[in-house]
Amino acid sequence: MIAPASDAWDVIVIGGALSGSATARLILRRNPTARLLILERHPHFKRRVGESTVEISAYFLGRVMGLTDHLLEHHLPKQGMRFWSMNAATSSLADCSEIGPGYNVRLPGYQVDRAVLDEHVLQLAQQEGATVRRPVKVKHIRLTPGGAQTVEWEDAGMPRLSTARWVVDASGFAALLGRQEGWHRPNLRHPTAACWTRWTGVKSWDDPALAAKFPAWSARCRAIRSVATNHLTGYGWWAWVIPLRGGDVSIGVTFDQRLCALPPGPRLADRLKTLLLTHPAGRELFSAANCRDHDVHYRANLAYDSTTYAVDGAVLVGDAAAFMDPFYSPGMDWIAFGATAAAALISASLRGEPAGPLAAQYTQDFTVAYERWFRALYLDKYYYMGDHELMLLAFRLDLGMYYLGAVQHVFRTGPSGLETPGFARRCAGGPAALMALYNRRLAAIAQSRRRRGVWGRRNTGRYFPFTSYEFNARLVPRLAAATARWLALELREGWRTWFRRPSHATIQSQLPASALRGSADLAAPLPARSR
Fold it and tell me: Three-state SS across 65-110?
């Protein structure tokens, strides 16, 4: 038997996509002479789901990673978020209730083609001193706390053995180290699934033909609708519409498996399109659209976290550490915090500081951040996401709290503000509890509305021209006004649920006929051949 070739490094990064290459770049900035190896399994990054940045991830990519020129040249500027709701009385796109900015947004954001971005950041990491090996396959990671970590990998079928003081797992959903060590933990409180692909032939929201067809609908908005992240919403589900440079559009649906599923059918792409066409906005924009062949993806049970995020010698970043939900595009915020914190931890260790306490603090910070983040924004949100009135209230509160806390802190503190995830900061406990409270209450009110047959009653004919939040004297009063609206809602109808224990559906068909027009059988299971 041939012994594997071996070599020694200071840091080995497993995975060369954004989380891995960004972490590598930050480590090399702090430690220019560090020997750093990136192991990437793909010869080139495959086309991935389109992804939106939000304020913190845009700050991280632009000001920390220095990618502003790349983002403007190879991706699209983003103009906020829009939400489109419907009910049985909604017959056309113009009838859908809409939430979205009346004018263009204040802070930068981007609609990102992840394959293009990942390749660029990996190339920069290589230019800045990282050694990249691709395509390779990591076979096993042997951890030695405080010592040399060992990575067994294959390069063109040849076994290799590398050691390093630190291993960074940035392997994405594969979560190699977390699964190997038993740290990976499914989040059973949030049984969501997603199906997505790229489409051609999607009608633009800003098409002159649409403006001629619905002149009042077109004239009421001064902003560009087409480069926003547009959300189509229904009971228990939502769909994203993300444009990409070059003309493709990333479209996918995420749903709570307790409340709905994809329609039945032999082809996964057809099932996805059938669901999208149940929405009036979907029928208007996607009726002539076609998906890219061999680019349809499905993933059940999206949410998970880790019992351990770091030990003395290894750290998890990005999706290798945890994932909550694609709604509000938190993925690259999570990468920004993880990459920055991991680089700080590893750099301190390479300077000779004791790594054990730092790794324990990293685990504590990200454990607290995940739980607070999840309870504040996602737990049972799918019960009310498609109700225009409830989602409008949640959106104003969610975004306002995000600006008041996490975004404002990072913009004022600078890159060091990313070393601790926003929800893990000491001052975040109270705001996180408040957010979890109103999120829980809105879910309870939504369930009460379903029982009383009034869920989504304002999903037709309403438009809320949201004005972007800013770091000025109006931020707190605007947030206080939204809070007052929530309290008024509690007095008006929330009292019905104050003393009632919340009920949760099981993962089966729970769709009343009025939930989605023309889609009474959305709970059909996905055929095994489509998984």
Answer: CCCHHHHHHHCEECCCEEEEECCCCCCCHHHEEEEEECCCCCCCCE
List Cβ neighbours of 424 (8 Å cut-off, separation of 6 or more). 364, 365, 366, 368, 369, 372
Helix axes 429-452, 388-402, angle to 10 degrees: 180
Maximum alpha-carbon separation in the chain: 76
CATH number of 1-75+113-187+304-375: 3.20.20.100, 3.50.50.60, 3.20.20.70, 3.40.50.11690?
Answer: 3.50.50.60
Which of 482, 301, 479, 470 lies closest to 389, judged by CA?
Answer: 482
Map residue 140 onto helix, strand or coil. Answer: strand
| Residue 192 near residue 256, CB atoms below 8 Å | yes
What is residue 141's three-state secondary structure?
strand
Dihedral of the alpha carbons of 110, 411, 369, 351, in degrees to the nearest 10: 110
Taking only the tens place, the pLDDT of each residue in 190-242 is 999 999 999 999 999 999 999 999 999 999 999 999 999 999 999 999 999 99
- Compute the residue count for the chain: 531
- pTM of the model as a whole: 0.93
Question: Does residue 514 sit in helix, strand or coil?
Answer: coil
**Contact by Cβ (8 Å): 108, 80:** no
* Rounded Cα distance, 45 and 47, in Å: 7
Q: How far apart are CA 126 and CA 63, in angstroms?
A: 20
67's CB contacts (< 8 A; 6+ apart) are: 61, 117, 120, 121
**Using one digit for the tens of pLDDT, what is the confidence trace for 270-309?**
999 999 999 999 999 999 999 876 789 999 999 999 999 9
DSSP state of 203: P
Sequence-distant (6+) residues with CB within 8 A of 501 are: none
Which one has a higher pLDDT value, 423 or 51? 423
**Using CA atoms, how far apart are residues 272 and 301, in angstroms rounded to an integer?**
17
Name the residue ranges covered by the structural domains of the chain: 1-75+113-187+304-375, 79-112+192-300+380-531
Q: How far apart are CA 253 and CA 161, in angstroms?
A: 41
CA dihedral 278, 280, 281, 287 (to 10 degrees): 60
Residues forming beta bridges with residue 77, ordered by sequence position: 110
Burial of 216-250, coded b for 16+ CB within 10 Å and e otherwise, reads ebbeebebbbbbbbbbbbbbbbbbbbbbbeeebbb
